[in-house]
Every structure is written in structure tokens, then in C-alpha cells.
Amino acid sequence: MEPLTDKEIRASFVNCTKGDAARMKLPLDFAELPWPDLDFLGWVDPGAPLRAHLVVPRPDGPVGVTLRVPAVGRTSAMKSSMCQICLTSHASYGVTLLAAPLAGARGREGNTVGTYICADLACPLYVRGLRQPKLRGGRAEESLTPVEHIERMMENLNAFVDRVAAG
Questions:
Q1: Number of folded domains in the chain?
Q2: Which pTM was predicted?
Q3: Which residues, listed in sequence order, are joined to residue 43 by a DSSP beta bridge?
């Protein structure tokens, strides 16, 4: 992913107001982000921990989506769960259901779409083996190449972002 500026990130959001985008806090480590290892930018808002954000590069420019994080204490009864974006298995606390308000009028009416995703939003790092889940055997053995893993992850993410943006 090519590095993005603060202004580019804030202008990319499709499911929140310009005021909300202006108020969101960027990742605390924004200046040190490993841009070459990122296929998308994802973070939990340090100023509003029940909000998370994704910014996905697209040919026409980045598309940002704001998400709701479940309140603390809502944990799954499952011993492990799998991210629907990168297909990494985690202990139950490593994957969370994030809900995105739909873009436009439907989102303003309260309609959302959700997905189970790595709680730290570090899917690109898991796919590349740069971060390991806290679960023995977290990434299943597959015959896909690293490039194919990344392509699949981005297809899954783009399908989710398309659902949000379509309203």
C-alpha cells in the first residue's frame, strides 16, 4: 500500500460525516506504519475505543469505512474463531464482530452490515507471517502462494467494503 496522508485518509470515508472523519484519531504509530507490508490500513480509534476504521486502496482512490467495536465484556463462548477477511484462526478474543453503518440514507436510519475480523485489524501482517495469532496453529496450511493469500484477503475485504458503500 502506498503511504496516505492524514487528509487523504479523512477524505476517504463513505459511511460517516465529514465532521466525524475530522474528529477521528489516527493510529498512535501513524508515522511508523509499515506501509510496504500493508494492503489496507485498519485501526481502533485511540480517542474512541468503540470505533474502528478501515481504509482500502482502490484504483479511483482510497475508500474508508468506520466500524463499531463491541463493548468490552462481550466475548465469544467459542474457544477459537476465524477472521472472515484473512482466514486466520485466533483465540476467541482475537476475532471480533465489527459493524459498519451503511453509506447514505440507509446508514443514517441505523442499518449496518458486519463481519468477523481480526480484533487488531492486522490481517496483512498475519497473511505475510509477520504477526502470529495467539493460538497454536493459527494459520492453516494451504497450497496458495503468498500472493494468492493476499489476493483472497483483498477480495474478501473489498466485498465487505462494497456492501457498506452501496448503502
A1: 1
A2: 0.90
A3: 53
For residue 9, what is its C-alpha cell?
485518509
- The Cα 81–Cα 50 span in angstroms is 21
Q: Which grid coordinates belong to 163?
A: 456492501
The Cα-based distances of 16 to 48, 54, 59, 72, 88 in angstroms read 14, 12, 21, 23, 29
What pLDDT is stored for residue 74 in this prediction? 47
* Cα 67 from Cα 14, distance rounded (Å): 11
For cell 485489524, what's the residue? 121
Domain that holds residue 113: 6-166
pLDDT bracket for residue 167 (50, 70, 90): confident
**Number of residues in the chain:** 167
Evaluate whether residue 1 is within a structural domain. Answer: no
Q: Tell me whether residue 22 is exposed, middle or buried, using C-beta atoms within 10 angstroms of its C-beta: 0 to 12, 13 to 18, 19 or more.
A: exposed
State how far the Cα of 9 lies from the Cα of 140, in Å rounded to an integer.
Answer: 33
Q: Tell me whether residue 137 is in a domain.
A: yes
Q: In the structure grid, which three cell numbers stand for residue 101, read together?
A: 453503518
Average pLDDT over residues 43-48: 94
Q: Which parts of the chain fold into alpha helices (H)? A: 6-11, 18-23, 104-108, 123-127, 146-166
Q: For the chain, what is the mean pLDDT?
A: 91
